[in-house]
Design a protein that fits this description.
The complex is a heterodimer. By secondary structure, chain A is of the alpha/beta class. In chain A, 44% of the residues lie in helices and 14% in strands. The chains are: A alpha/beta, B mainly alpha. Chains A and B meet through helix 2, strand 2, helix 3 and helix 4 of A and helix 3, helix 13 and helix 14 of B.
Chain lengths: 411, 355
């Protein structure tokens, strides 16, 4: 008996010493998701995209040999749960946190800055965070609501023949802080371009907007509609606008009302024909990185996940993951042992330049002062059962947006 | 709390009314104090303290709501809004006047109390479900006002960043520091509520709950005490809102929406209406349950589902389990966790010689 025990211990010891000294350091990313809360249509497709890209990176050997572990926590779009998730991520040693939700990024701003962990808020949150001096650890890494508002006005201008003088534009928005955030920028542009602006608030939960839409179409006679809605409400807006006979090609939606799910919930692609949507990540399945993910699944003998069909949100998940990994890659360059900190990743983000992932990611240039990276968007249009690209990556009225960012930093 | 008593040997009213009716209670309280002030913060990781901090804020809010709903019998669905009144008052004081945190805390509490008393006015005429709807209107009006009046909300984003609280130049920022900061207020709120409830005011509240006409007949000024109940309850809510604002470093109205009011109602109903311990149990239960379920799912979910689907299943199952567990607890003991706790205690009081 004793002999057997001795042998066992010997074997265990040998196995222990035979293990290679840990040259590779596991890098942890925190990911906050909303697969159950108010905006769950986003989370259920975006988060799988995120994980698939991380898996792809790990399958290729990680970042310089260091594997990445993405810890996902669902917070139901509730702030206390989000704070708990943040602390959990911090405990796990996350070097970057993918925050989800405008109230959440507000709630975490001070913590992230004190703990020196970069947090990303792609396409939502506080537009003022584009200022990297004022908010050193917050990274919008995609067009903020201010840039989106400016882009929408620019697109409108092109659609209406190059001049907005005397035109009537309706701004249809979800009546919460995120919905109201772009208003000052659009108001400034209204003065600059000489168009008439009228705002139409949709009160939460945003499923009742018959009166507003009727007002836009038949009393105000808007020449163009800029819509900024969330959750269920974009699909309702499409339906209502269709019902009153307003041409959908004269509507452009911000980034959270622009996915396949919204079109399908509105009654299908034929209903939404002409509807213009803004995107901060490429749409469609035709990108090299997506092919690699499909390839990876094929090698494992599995079907590609069904979430991939919802390309708008899935691709955004891939974009967020890719930018996180790219920042980590830049950070690891300075510390090849992989023991990077949040500060290193912050600097890593600030070195991202012209990283496009075959067109899925806009050619961002993130610097220590500009955490938005240029605020680039594309406009796509519903045409014949799919989204069709209308514009290439563009950024409009940079001076107006920059002025607002500057003013906000003074506060 | 967790001690046993033997016989009723009180000979004076003072002894009967004492906060700690038995000498051993003092030891229990001392032991709990040592545990929470020394043992817990020294022994666990910061993360667990952050969870305790969320519980602390919930306890203060739940105590306030229990004074109104549990003790005075007036239902309110506007607790979250009163929290936001406190939060924004404190944030405006802090940012515009540069006032120190004790001033902001008090101002937030008092402002919430004032607004609460106004929202509570209908309680003089209407009761029960009707009052619930009236306070719901209060919640929505306050939400709308904060959302739209930029003087209060500080801009279209409706969020105001506040500086960290400082005590004699010592900045309270980390979770450990915040833990002690919040713990002091939890103790104050607990002692305050217990004392309030054994005072003349507390007895008046209970009399109104049990039968308001009878209460009026024995000389209780219903008008005064109902509004006082709303004011006290909202004061607690306001303080909880201010503490939450300091905890996050930002006042944001989206953190105090209608679902928060409902969460607080759930806390006191699950914990036990009309009991201080019940508020504590309920606040801890509602705050911890989702976290505990997630840990359990992470530990055992992999046994039943594939890795990719676990991520999708955890949050959904958590919601289902959360709902189911609340139903189970309410079916097992409709009077809440506090009653469950007392049942367990009285079982062990005679154990093993139960008859």
């Amino acid at each position: 008996m004793r002999q057997i025990l001795a042998i066992l211990i010997g074997v265990a010891l040998a196995a222990g010493s035979a293990m290679p000294a840990a040259a590779n350091h596991e890098i942890v990313i925190g990911l906050q998701c909303d697969r159950t809360g108010a905006t769950q249509t986003v989370g259920v497709n975006l988060c799988p995209g995120y994980h698939d890209y991380i898996r792809l990176v790990n399958a290729k050997g990680g970042v310089d040999g260091h594997k990445i572990r993405a810890v996902e926590i669902d917070h139901e779009y509730k702030v206390p749960q989000g704070m708990e998730a943040y602390e959990r991520h911090k405990k796990e040693g996350a070097v970057v946190i993918g925050v989800y939700g405008t109230p959440h990024i507000y709630a975490m701003t001070q913590k992230l800055t004190e703990d020196r962990i970069p947090g990303t808020s792609p396409g939502f949150g506080s537009a003022a965070a584009a200022d990297g001096q004022r908010y050193p650890y917050i990274f919008p890494i995609a067009a903020t609501y201010w840039s989106q508002g400016a882009a929408a006005v620019d697109f409108t201008k092109k659609q209406l023949g190059g001049s907005l003088k005397g035109k009537k534009i309706a701004y249809l928005f979800f009546d919460n802080p995120a919905g109201r955030e772009p208003i000052p920028v659009i108001e400034d542009l209204s003065a600059k371009e000489g168009f008439q602006l009228k705002t139409f608030a949709v009160p939460p939960p945003g499923v009742e907007m018959g009166a507003q839409v009727l007002d836009i179409a038949q009393r105000y006679h808007a020449d163009f509609v800029i819509a900024h809605l969330f959750g269920r409400s974009p699909s309702v807006s499409i339906k209502e606008l269709k019902r009153v006979g307003y041409p959908l090609r004269k509507v452009v939606s911000f980034v959270w009302g622009s996915a396949e799910a919204d079109i399908e919930a509105a009654g299908g692609w034929s209903v939404a024909e002409g509807y213009n949507v803004m995107q901060f990540a490429g749409v469609g399945t035709d990108y090299p990185v997506l092919n690699e993910i499909r390839e990876m699944y094929k090698k494992e003998g599995k079907e590609a996940p069904k979430e991939m069909a919802s390309t708008v949100y899935y691709n955004r998940g891939v974009l967020i993951a890719a930018l996180h990994v790219e920042a980590i890659r830049n950070a690891v360059k300075g510390k090849p042992d992989g023991k990077i900190t949040g500060e290193d990743v912050k600097k890593g983000f600030e070195q991202i330049n012209n990283f496009t992932l075959g067109g899925l990611v806009p050619p961002l240039k993130i610097t220590a002062t500009d955490h938005e990276g240029g605020g680039l968007v594309q406009i796509w249009q519903v045409k014949g059962g799919k989204f069709e690209k209308q514009t290439d990556w563009f950024h409009a009225y940079g001076d107006v947006v920059a002025k607002h960012v500057k003013d906000a930093a003074k506060k | 709390m967790i001690h046993r008593e033997c016989g009723v040997l009180k000979t004076t009213y003072e002894a009967d009314m004492a906060l700690y009716p038995l000498p051993i209670a003092k030891w229990t309280v001392a032991a709990l104090a040592v545990f929470f002030f020394v043992v817990l913060p020294l022994s666990v990781h910061e993360y667990y303290l952050s969870v305790v901090n969320l519980c602390s804020i919930a306890i203060i809010g739940a105590l306030g709501l229990n004074i109104l709903v549990g003790y005075t019998g007036q239902i309110s669905v506007g607790h979250g809004a009163f929290m936001s009144v406190g939060a924004y008052t404190a944030a405006n004081f802090a940012v515009r006047l540069g006032a120190p945190w004790p001033v902001n805390l008090l101002a937030g509490g008092l402002m919430a109390a004032a607004v609460g008393a106004v929202v509570g006015m209908p309680s003089l005429r209407i009761k029960g479900l009707y009052l619930a709807i009236a306070t719901l209107a209060g919640q929505l009006i306050i939400e709308w006002t904060i959302n739209h009046v930029t003087f209060i909300s500080g801009g279209v984003q409706a969020s105001i960043e506040v500086p960290r609280p400082e005590i004699f130049g010592y900045r309270i920022a980390s979770q450990v520091q915040m833990y002690f900061f919040l713990l002091v207020f939890v103790v104050l709120a607990l002692v305050g509520t217990m004392n309030l409830m054994r005072s003349r005011i507390g007895r008046a509240f209970i009399a109104i709950r049990d039968h308001d006409i009878a209460a009026e007949l024995i000389g209780i000024n219903i008008f005064r005490y109902k509004l006082l109940a709303f004011a006290v309850s909202s004061f607690y809510a306001g303080v909880a809102g201010v503490l939450y604002t300091y905890y996050l470093g930002v006042a944001n109205y989206e953190q105090f929406q209608i679902n928060v009011s409902i969460d607080y109602l759930a806390m006191i109903i699950i914990g036990g209406l009309g009991s201080v311990q019940g508020s504590v149990f309920g606040a801890i239960f509602v705050t911890l349950l989702p976290i505990v379920i997630r840990y359990a799912m992470e530990a055992f979910g992999g046994l039943f589902f594939s890795e990719a689907s676990v991520l999708n299943i955890i949050p959904n199952l958590r919601l289902i389990l959360f709902g189911a567990l609340i139903i189970v607890f309410l079916v097992v003991e409709p009077e809440g966790l506090n009653r469950l706790w007392r049942n367990i205690r009285s079982y062990f009081r005679v154990w093993p010689f139960a008859y």
